[in-house]
Amino acid sequence: MFTDFRPVDDRPVYIQVKEYLKRMITKGILQADQKLPSTRELSTLLHVSRNTVITAYADLEEEGLIYTVKGKGSFVSRSKIVTTSSYRLDWRQKINDKARMAEEMDLMKHGIRWEKGMISFTSIAPDEKLFDLSNFKRAFLDRISIEGEILLNYGYAKGYKPLMEYLLRYMENKGVDLTGKDILITNGFTEGFDMIVSALSRENASVICENPTHHTAMKILRLNGFEPVGIEMEQDGIHLEKLRRALSEQLFCFAYLIPSYHNPTGIVMSPEKRMAVLNLFAKYQVPIIEDGFNEELRYSGSHVAPLIACAGKGNSVIYLGSFSKILFPGIRVGWILADKDLIDYLESIKRARTIHTSTLDQAVLYQYLHNGNFEKYLKKARSVYKRKYELAVRCCKEFIPLKRMTGDGGLHLFIELEENIHAREVLKDCYSKGVVFTPGDIFFTDQGGHHTLRLGFSRVSDEEMVKGIKLIGESVKKCMREV
Amino acid sequence: MFTDFRPVDDRPVYIQVKEYLKRMITKGILQADQKLPSTRELSTLLHVSRNTVITAYADLEEEGLIYTVKGKGSFVSRSKIVTTSSYRLDWRQKINDKARMAEEMDLMKHGIRWEKGMISFTSIAPDEKLFDLSNFKRAFLDRISIEGEILLNYGYAKGYKPLMEYLLRYMENKGVDLTGKDILITNGFTEGFDMIVSALSRENASVICENPTHHTAMKILRLNGFEPVGIEMEQDGIHLEKLRRALSEQLFCFAYLIPSYHNPTGIVMSPEKRMAVLNLFAKYQVPIIEDGFNEELRYSGSHVAPLIACAGKGNSVIYLGSFSKILFPGIRVGWILADKDLIDYLESIKRARTIHTSTLDQAVLYQYLHNGNFEKYLKKARSVYKRKYELAVRCCKEFIPLKRMTGDGGLHLFIELEENIHAREVLKDCYSKGVVFTPGDIFFTDQGGHHTLRLGFSRVSDEEMVKGIKLIGESVKKCMREV
């Protein structure tokens, strides 16, 4: 006994001694009323100072795990755990269909697997090498010195006030008329979208969206009992004629649109089309959830206003924003800007779900933004990603026999191969050569897109980019020969 | 024009100039093709350096908001926002019953209001004056220097690995047999409970729990279509005979129990009762959600093992843990320890809801725990709260004519007045004297408890405590005279 104590370096030793003894007591290795070694003995046995053992014993006594008899020593308390009758059940039989669906649609579990060392075009998250750690640290230290206690205590469901104020100004600068609108901070886009969708009545279970569309959004819609109906994309956004036809033929509960750097096609909806789309939805009285995805990652071209700005004083557009895809995905902060009546309900839903988003994260993000670091970071990120984007475009054009390629910026390109080529066949071949990408079919509402694929380039080095796209091109050619 | 520019001190001026101009452009104060002042002119007008204006103009041009004609100057782009037809809808007609319920049951909106300066016994959150800011800062700096990039990028839905490992050991030290179990990190108790409840099949919509019980839990149960059935409490926990009767008469989907420092009664379920309760639920094959609420806030007495430890190798107990009520509520981190099959489903639900809990929060909390700060903090907090607890108990006994008082520790006491006294009447009188507390009826599953109240004392000073409880006592006496 007492020979297997192996303390680690950077944690107080008395805590480690305490935990070690606790484990022996709760596991029954040390029995009730068993005498413990004297503090002197144990310090020799464990090679720690006697004071360390004294502190550990005192803590264990305070926690009621041991007791001391004057002049006799320390003993294990009787209160150790007695395991009682319990039973085993099959939890898979206890869970409901929604939980089952969530598991089945979980791409991280059933999607493309890849091993370390492979060239992966599956990610569209920012490159962590670009992260601006020193300014982030600065922002943390600034904010904690201003109001540390506030950051660590409960906050408001709607959000951390300075951040809310900042984002309202930020949206106003994009041209949004804030009259009658309000903001709610969320744990990223995902929570925001899920909350909105869960709050809307399901009179008409159909939701109109682009086809293809964001996979996670489609998953959340389905988990909430809605069926996405996708409308084909053109080079400048959703196909207007097909949209008009769908709206005239069927009732929709709401629309879900990604007007900028659309995921997965990378298309930016043209200003003219934005107007036309808004007019059309207004005519059919269908509200819009606008996904502000990567709106900031413009590499060239003119300023394009979000739909919610174009809607002026109208209240039918709900805007979902997030800096996750550009700044720091690890801190989960997004926001909903919408009609204040709607926000009022969403605030209560937020409170019932997660009380509020981490005040610490919100406050540090606010300070980072306030300090003006975002603008500087964005400049750097834009120039790095622009270069990567251009390299990716060149490589795809040169190496992949493609039918169509879209992507006006952002962190990914979308490729359409010849109709008779299956992207999953290409992927199989690529996988054997150590290259992976995302097959496009997962983004389609109608099981189409078997001949499409998405290439995320943000986390791929130049060298890997050339090598990887070349290999994809070779696999495509091989598949073409085999057809 | 240009006379209302008011820069703040601690934000780069060029960004403020840029945003100022942006606002004038998006609001249409500066019109398309209008010539902007030269950089020299504007620098004079705004009282900023010329370089500042040059940088601001360059940024605006990059964003496509202005354009430059060589030798002529800078002009506003045509791409400014054209507001198009949109429409207004009544969002209150669009939302569903669940959202409406969430709003109606939102205590922050419809609960007790109180003004600044009042003595408030409504909070059971920790006192922020106790927060251990310097060690928290240290933990942040330690962790960010070890793996800053990782903290800021996407993590895993299940949680940040070092924290998961730490918590598994932590639970093992409480005597839990980890065989076949797994852990999932959540955004506090609230998200964890909501996820579990949303995942369970609703064959039997009834859930058995203590009466009174945690208000938020009751709200979440109802929002998910479950009906809580409360069983009366005795001095050592839930009434065993009544529990037995209820279990024999009705089918229950699961149980929700708060065995330690029960909210709102503050009762700790005795070790003997824990065994009996577990055996009873095993007999009737009803799984248990165990709320580990404030388990650490023991001021005296012997060690009491959580139900999940007493259940040994059984898999019918789901344990929900959180340090929020003791450490830092502002960073929303909690955990679920349960059967690994169940955790597997919950992981997918977590991914579909919030992707994952803030990696930053998890990592800093991990480092704080690892550094051994929690133990030290807990000692300090326990001694402060113990003193407050004892003072509160003394005051209540002295000043309030009560029938029963419970609370074995924790941060609150629960008081039962004579049956014919209405706590809300007492509250009304107290409010006029500047004192507020939580009327107990909100915690009851059966609309009972009109004569009960909860006093949270963690954030009340000694002086306020004596004064406040005295005033409550006077109000109770007044109400007694009036009956």
Would you give an account of this structure?
- Chains A, B: Residues 11-79 form the HTH gntR-type domain.
- Chains A, B: In the C-terminal section; belongs to the class-I pyridoxal-phosphate-dependent aminotransferase family.
- Chains A, B: Keywords: Aminotransferase, DNA-binding, Pyridoxal phosphate, Transcription, Transcription regulation, Transferase.
- Chains A, B: It holds the Pfam family GntR.
- Two copies of one chain form a homodimer.
- Chain A has 483 residues and is α/β, with parallel strands linked by helices.
- Chain A has three domains: 13-76, Orthogonal Bundle (Arc Repressor Mutant, subunit A), CATH 1.10.10.10; 100-129 and 375-482, Aspartate Aminotransferase, domain 1, CATH 3.90.1150; 132-374, Aspartate Aminotransferase, domain 2, CATH 3.40.640.10.
- The first copy, chain A, is built from 18 helices and 16 strands.
- In chain A, the strands form four sheets. The first copy, chain A, has an eight-stranded mixed β-sheet with strand order 4-11-10-9-8-5-6-7, sandwiched between helices.
- Chain A is globular and about 90 Å long.
- The model of chain A has no long low-confidence stretch (mean pLDDT 93).
- Chains A and B meet through helix 1, helix 4, helix 5, helix 7 and helix 8 of A and helix 1, helix 4, helix 5, helix 7 and helix 8 of B.
